[in-house]
C-alpha cells in the first residue's frame, strides 16, 4: 500500500508539472512567433517602401540634431538653464549692468602642504608656519608660483594679453587688485628674504595691501578652526584675483573670451606647470572643474579604447574557433570601429 501511495504521489506531481511546462512552452513559442512576425512585417514594409523609411530616418536624425543643439546652447547659458525665460531678473540685470557695468570675476588660488590636510594627524606636517625657517622656505615657493602667474600670456583677437590687461585696477595705470599673503612683504622677494621671522610678521596688526588698506590676514592665511589638536595651525595660503568680465556671445556662450583664456591657462600653470616638492596649488573656479573633467574623460577614453581592442581580439578568437572557414572577423573589426566612433 505504501508503494502504491508513493507511486500515486509521483504521478500527481508529474501531472502537475506537465501543464506548467506546456504553458511555458506555448508562451515561449508565441513570444518567438510574435517577434518573428514583427520583424518579417517590418522587413516587408522596408522592402516595399524604402523611400519612406529613408525619409523618416533622415527626418528623425535632423530632429534629434536640432533638439541636441538647442539643449546644448541652453546648457551653456547658466542663466537660461536655471531661470525661466519669462523671469524679470534678465531685464533687471541688463538695467543694472547698463548703469554700473559688467560685474567683476573673482578667482582664488590656494596653496597647502602636499598632503591630505583632512586626514593627516601630525599637525606639524600640515602647518605652513611650523618654524620660521621652513615657513620662509614655503613662502618663497609661494612667491615662485606668484611670479609664474604673472608670466601667463594669452592671445585673443591678435592681442598678447597678461594679468595686467584683464585685471581690475582701482587706480588708473596702477597695480592689479590682488590680495594675498605676499602683501605682508609688498610682493618684494628681497624683503621676504631679509625677514628673520616671517611668523612674527604675519602676526602684526598693521599689515596693509598695496593700496594702503588693512590686510585681511585671516582671509589670505587660512588657519585650522576645527578646535582639535591642530587648532590655529596655518594650513592654507590664498591669492584672490579680481578680473574684468566683459561678456559677449562666443559660440553660444555668454563669456569674456580674454579672461576665460587667461583663467584656463591659470589652471594649467597652478595644477600642471608649477612644481614643488612640498606644496600643492589649487584653483577655485569653473575652469578648474572643467580641467579635472577633461582629464577624467581622457582617462575613460583610454580605458574604452583598450576595452574595444580586447573585445575585438576576443571576438576574433571565438569566431575563428567556432567556424574557421566562415570566419567573420572583418565584421567584428567594423563593429569595434563603429563603437569607437560612437
From TrEMBL:
Q: Which domain of life is it from?
A: Eukaryota
NPC1 middle luminal domain location: 123-211
Give the record's keywords alphabetically.
Membrane, Transmembrane, Transmembrane helix
Pfam family of this protein, just one?
Answer: NPC1_MLD
The regions listed as transmembrane in this protein's record are 52-72
Q: Which GO terms describe its cellular component?
A: membrane
Q: Which InterPro entries match?
A: NPC1_MLD (IPR053956), Patched_domain-protein (IPR051697)
Q: Which PANTHER family match?
A: PATCHED-RELATED, PATCHED-RELATED, ISOFORM A
What is this protein's record name?
Answer: NPC1 middle luminal domain-containing protein
Amino acid at each position: 500500500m505504501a508503494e502504491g501511495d508513493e507511486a500515486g504521489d509521483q504521478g500527481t506531481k508529474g501531472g502537475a508539472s506537465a501543464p506548467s511546462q506546456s504553458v511555458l512552452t506555448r508562451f515561449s513559442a508565441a513570444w518567438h512567433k510574435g517577434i518573428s512576425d514583427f520583424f518579417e512585417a517590418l522587413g516587408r514594409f522596408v522592402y516595399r517602401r524604402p523611400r519612406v523609411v529613408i525619409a523618416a530616418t533622415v527626418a528623425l536624425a535632423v530632429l534629434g540634431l536640432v533638439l541636441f543643439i538647442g539643449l546644448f546652447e541652453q546648457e551653456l547659458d547658466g542663466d537660461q538653464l536655471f531661470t525661466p525665460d519669462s523671469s524679470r531678473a534678465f531685464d533687471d540685470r541688463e538695467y543694472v549692468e547698463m548703469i554700473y557695468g559688467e560685474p567683476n570675476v573673482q578667482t582664488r588660488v590656494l596653496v597647502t602642504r602636499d598632503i591630505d590636510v583632512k586626514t593627516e594627524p601630525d599637525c606639524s606636517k600640515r602647518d605652513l608656519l611650523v618654524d620660521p625657517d621652513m615657513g620662509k622656505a614655503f613662502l618663497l615657493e609661494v612667491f615662485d608660483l606668484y611670479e609664474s602667474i604673472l608670466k601667463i600670456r594669452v592671445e585673443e583677437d591678435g592681442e598678447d594679453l597678461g594679468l595686467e590687461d584683464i585685471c581690475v585696477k582701482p587706480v588708473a595705470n596702477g597695480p592689479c587688485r590682488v590680495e594675498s599673503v605676499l602683501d605682508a612683504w609688498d610682493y618684494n622677494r628681497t624683503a621676504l628674504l631679509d625677514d628673520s621671522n616671517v611668523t612674527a610678521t604675519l602676526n602684526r596688526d598693521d599689515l596693509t595691501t598695496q593700496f594702503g588698506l588693512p590686510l585681511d590676514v585671516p582671509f589670505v592665511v587660512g588657519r585650522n578652526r576645527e578646535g582639535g589638536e591642530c587648532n590655529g595651525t596655518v594650513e592654507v595660503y590664498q591669492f584672490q584675483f579680481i578680473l574684468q568680465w566683459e561678456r559677449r556671445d562666443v559660440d553660444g556662450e555668454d563669456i569674456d573670451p580674454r579672461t576665460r583664456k587667461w583663467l584656463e591657462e591659470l589652471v594649467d600653470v597652478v595644477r600642471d606647470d608649477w612644481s614643488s616638492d612640498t606644496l600643492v596649488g589649487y584653483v577655485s573656479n569653473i575652469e578648474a572643474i572643467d580641467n579635472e573633467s577633461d582629464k577624467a574623460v581622457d582617462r575613460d577614453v583610454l580605458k574604452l579604447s583598450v576595452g574595444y581592442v580586447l573585445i575585438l581580439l576576443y571576438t576574433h578568437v571565438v569566431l575563428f574557433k567556432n567556424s574557421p572557414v566562415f570566419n567573420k572577423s572583418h565584421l567584428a573589426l567594423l563593429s569595434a570601429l563603429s563603437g569607437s566612433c560612437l
